[in-house]
Design a protein that fits this description.
Number of helices: 6
Helix content: 40-55%
Number of strands: 6
Distance between the termini: 50 Å
Largest sheet: 6 strands, mixed
Radius of gyration: 15 Å
Oligomer: single chain
Strand order of the largest sheet: 1-2-3-4-5-6
Length: 151
């Protein structure tokens, strides 16, 4: 259990350092993003317009039926972090209003099973940082294509 908590803390730290994928999906694809680019990123999950995080979460829900059930029960998170290490796939789901995060780990590369741990408390610093990123994404959206560098 202690080892699992340590891994989670490292993944949470990594995810917070890599806060950069809050653009709409169209912006992400225009910038040449691929599925591999979503790894080691924390992404805003927004339905309208669909964010890269929303698309990745829906895609992963198709791969992992237990994730789809989890999302039906708890709802969509505000942010999704995605990474892989030692041939294991990890997702971290951040729910800002509840100030909680859940970690999901694929049991093996060849299975469609995923296990969940949590909830883990989101620290005040993490909460503040994630809310700032959400505000920045909303600002870019309100400013239109000129703010994202699109023609």
């Amino acid at each position: 259990m202690m080892k699992r908590s340590g891994i989670l803390l490292v993944l949470l730290g990594l995810a917070l350092v890599l806060l950069s994928a809050c653009q709409p999906v169209s912006d992400a694809w225009a910038a040449g993003w691929t599925e591999a680019a979503a790894h080691d990123q924390i992404m805003l999950v927004r339905a309208v317009p669909p964010s890269l995080g929303q698309q990745r979460l829906l895609s992963q829900s198709g791969v992992y039926p237990d994730l789809a059930g989890f999302l039906r029960t708890r709802g969509m998170p505000d942010f999704l972090a995605e990474t892989s290490t030692h041939n294991r796939h990890f997702l971290i789901l951040y729910y800002l209003n509840a100030r909680r995060a859940y970690s999901c780990r694929a049991k093996a590369a060849s299975t469609r099973q995923i296990e969940f741990t949590g909830p883990y408390r989101i620290t005040r610093r993490e909460d503040r940082l994630l809310r700032e990123f959400r505000q920045q994404a909303a600002g870019r959206l309100a400013a239109g294509p000129a703010a994202s560098g699109a023609p």
